[in-house]
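User: I'm designing a mutation panel for Alkaline phosphatase family protein and want to avoid disrupting the core. Could you give me a predicted structure to guide residue selection? Please restate the sequence first so the numbering is unambiguous.

Assistant: Good idea. Sequence first, for numbering, then the predicted structure tokens:
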Amino acid sequence: MSAGTAPRDFVEPAYHRRSLGDVVPAVASALGLADALRVESPTDLDLPTAPSYVVFLVDGLGAELLDRYAHAAPFLSGLAVGQRPATAGVPSTTATSLTSLGTGLTPGTHGLVGFTSRVPGTDRLLNHLFWDKRVDPVEWQPNPTAFSRLAAAGATVSVVNKREFRGSGLTTAAHRGATFVGADRVGERIAAVVAAARHTPSLTYVYDGDLDWTGHRYGVASSHWLQQLAMVDHEAEQLRESLPDQTRLLVVADHGMVDSPAHARVDVDEHPELRDGVALLGGEARFRHLYCSGGAVADVCATWTGFLGDRADVIVRDEAVARGWFGEAAPGMLPRIGDVVVAAHSDLGVFSSVDFGYETTLIGLHGSLTADEMLIPMLVC
């Protein structure tokens, strides 16, 4: 396969056209503040002009899932009629996506290139959701955020999220420059969003992570997930009804999800040859970063390719960058990407019971480039 092409069941990220990282630039244009961000304007995301915008991000709500289970979400699925999906970035995982949203940058530029990635020059992984106090999030993600640039241009920019996320490493890296409003319950969140959206011009970002948690725990084919989807649908409808008519609501997601059954799982610790030449295993089950010992890259790539066959794309870092998976890749960010990356097809999950025991308890997974993971709703009302 030549560089720049994708496998037939993979969806390439639509950076600078219609991706999650293009949301804030598009909102800035709709608010009349396009010049504030100094980033490339998206070519396929033209939002209606409005004095204020609310961006409601539902963690784990893939566009394919919304279409498949439309009966459980009549409000959102009704909005989806005639509105084309967008894409997440690569990997299709929360920390990467939330940082793309907040910065307006591609993963290769902002540097949060996975659930976990190597801290260059060390033998440690940084978990971008739980962070590490030894790593300064402003140094790790040094670019000014799109939120901060929009605020500097005179817009009121607010982040409404659970109180526990205030001042976290990920919040600082991805969303600094916005006013943080802590709100733990749905009603509290809606009230906070309505209050923030009264300001003009304004962008209010609100996050709901319960659907993603439910999918990880029970799977997207479960009654638990469908019930949670119905609750999210009601939340979105109530939010729309509570907002002023002139405020636009934009519902998006950070990624979708696939269920990985037992027969589709590989535990690298049961296959010692998969550890040969691998100094550090990172990423997550659907998108692994393999950090190799010196001189071992070619052998590691060959071993993993031979073992997984057509169940995954196993490629070296340079090819992943050439395909455009991470968008523009700043030289300083390249060492955070695995020497070899493993992107799963179908429902494969690549686990390590030794290094990532908790992951083995999950049913729903994400991170790779399949349509179920990459395509996200882009619903404006």
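For picking mutation sites, this is relevant: Confidence is low (pLDDT under 50) at residues 1-6. The longest strand covers residues 52-58.
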